[in-house]
Design brief:
The chain is α+β, with helices and mostly antiparallel strands. The protein is built from 14 helices and ten strands. Strands 1, 2, 3, 4, 5, 6, 7, 8, 9 and 10 form a ten-stranded mixed β-sheet that branches. A hairpin with a 2-residue loop joins β2 and β3.
Amino acid sequence: MDKNTLLSSFGKWVLPINTEKINEQVKFLKQDYYTKKLTTGAYIKLLLFAQLHEFNSLHAISDALLDEDLQITLGFESISASQLSRKNNNLDPAILSTLFLDLVKKIQEYRHPSTRNLPLKIIDSSTLPLNLTNYKWAKFRKTKAGVKLHLRLVFMDKDTVYPEKAVITVAKEHDRNQLEVLVDDKESMYVFDRGYVDYERFDRMTDDGYFFVSRLKKNAVIREVESFSLPEGSTVLSDKMVLIGSTQNRAENFFRLLEVVDSKGNVLRLITNRFDLEADEISEIYRSRWAIELFFKWLKQHVEIKHFYGMSETAIQNQIYLALITYCLHVLIQLETNSKKTLLRISRWLKAAIWKPAFVWIRRFEEET
């Protein structure tokens, strides 16, 4: 009998979650002491169900338990919004962070295409606005509050990307402060935008053996050392070895500066410490940065991180990790079925077949191949 025969589509979707590891961590952190109904395992399944359906409140999640199949999956018939709120505010985010990283490892077991043997990793951040009245702890402007999701995204190919590392801070935290946290693998090629430009850090990354390409600010001072010839038909305007920065603030290493034209006709200046790649390869690598912008757009449109279920920092972090976990579970199905279908299509099919046998959902991928 096929293993998918007895599983529902929802059961198949959450199957990669290592419940044994979660239970060990829950026991160590004493999270489920005196908990009779809403255990951490049940909470995770229920909140993932909520993310999948984009429920915008705890009351909506509570009402969803009118669904008998959901009751059977969770092992109870009802839960109040207040019970959900307590669990959401008290659950240690380390549990969901560990779950997220465990799913990342499972994704990494699949083969990664590379750029001259180095995986491509894109770094950026996105601010999630909050109401200042309810989230005073997250104030970052006179009338605004918010948290910031700093992210490292792995670019497998144009159809498959996944978040690999996440740091959640208040919105006033500068992007540059997280760069060293997100850059920790010398066997990678990093891509980030001009908000991360820091000459001292560029020197340190180069000296330590990390490779990157970034966009240089328009007012950056540069001194040309050597100009490289470009192949006929190249889309790159110029390719040079340069020193960057003024006498008071400059980098000590030589860098490579390319001028390219973006899709809107604007001239961009790209800085990198890789001299072994063709100019057009560097340009193409930077163009892959659009993937992280699409990722943040997907996250804000197709899971629930616009309306938060709690007002504490813990509740916010838990909900963001659940959104990332939802995305990773979609990617794992995409990889397992070797599908080129979008994650939105995968999600729609899952919702349509949520309590049907898993083979009904998986068969759809094969029919559409």
